[in-house]
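Appendix B: a complete holo record

For completeness, this appendix reproduces one full record from the ligand-bound portion of the collection. The bound molecule is S-adenosylmethionine. The inputs are the chain sequence and the ligand SMILES; the output is the full three-dimensional arrangement of the complex, encoded as structure tokens. No fields have been trimmed.
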Amino acid sequence: MRFHHNLLQATVDALHNIFNDGKYADQAIQRILKRDTRWGSRDRGFIAETTYDIVRYKRLYAAIANVKEPFKPADLWRMTAVWIVLKGHDVPAWEEYYNTPVRRIKGKFDELSAITKYRESIPDWMDEMGKEELGEELWNKEISALNQQADVVLRANTLQTDVKTLQEKLLALEIATTTDERFPDALILKERANVFQTELFQNGLFEVQDAGSQTIAPFAQVEPGMRVMDSCAGAGGKSLHLAALMENKGQIISTDIYNGKLNELKRRARRAGAHNIETRLIDSTKVIKKLDGKMDRLVIDAPCSGLGVLRRNPDAKWKLEPEFLDNIRKTQQEILQSYSRVVKPEGMMVYATCSILPSENDKQVETFLNSESGADFELLDSQSLMAHKDGFDGFYMALMKKKK
Ligand SMILES: C[S@@+](CC[C@H](N)C(=O)[O-])C[C@H]1O[C@@H](n2cnc3c(N)ncnc32)[C@H](O)[C@@H]1O
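The structure of the chain with S-adenosylmethionine bound, as generated:
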């Protein structure tokens, strides 16, 4: 493979922004990609993928390169040299790579690969917690799968099209996709492509949404005409899917504690042609009280560690902290306790997270069902999706029914 100095320079600069300035990887990469308009899709792909790879394996590469944070530019160049050697390429004869110890890099890799926290590049606390929660074997399998690059998955917006028609329209644009019978509205890209630039996207024919995430709305068993609340709606991934499943009939009340996210939801709903969604900002407990016992369905897509979606946000490994996890578990239980009251008798509620940790998932549901507010509910079903087993992001969902 022939390397281009300016592309590796861009990678080093992006890594500097992410590791040293604490910027989010996707934002840092987007910014760097604007640097040179002459870069084609392959150049841009190289910068993005190389940066993501080194973010994923930061701990391993830093240990092999024998460098420590905060990384100096020379340290980051050494990490890119490690990446080049481990990918099996020849190191270019550039000043930055002068005297790269190729054999030592390979030897160090063999030595450190035997240790999970180095091989999978995770903080000590995360490795310990993962082993404790899932057991060593399952954790090792899952964290390794979560370090792989994620597929790009689309959800056909059935308010505008169907999977087959969309697949043909994408193919006409030379974007080849496959289907997966487990996820009826999903199309999986065979090769990465910037689908956001297509007219099909701009006209609302699809959303980009992982297949795992696409199982949550159908899990709520919604029907056209129902009253549904999407309590942690964010920018509306699940609300839009619910609207499609409800064929735009009935009412979806989408709430969040951030107005900015709800504004983005409204924008996306317009593009998708979803007309039965109304947004409400949760700025006091009154908003929930007013809906007491009125909802046929409640979807709680709870805030969580995001460990199930590490493939998409590899830098979260370094941004997450144990204290954040303790707090988020409290928030999850509070959300279950406070929002469950909106479900009407014989109505149903889905509690979902993009986490693979039992302490955020079934344990939360168990605590809720054993509490006073949970006594009226029974657990009907639950499902855990895992990257190593299902091939997509990690998700958990539980379906509970309110008694008469
Ligand atoms: C997992 S994200 C939701 C993603 C969104 N449902 C989607 O599909 O795009 C969790 C959301 O919960 C929101 N949130 C956190 N605490 C909340 C609360 N007490 N009530 C409502 N929403 C809350 C966060 O702002 C965040 O947008």
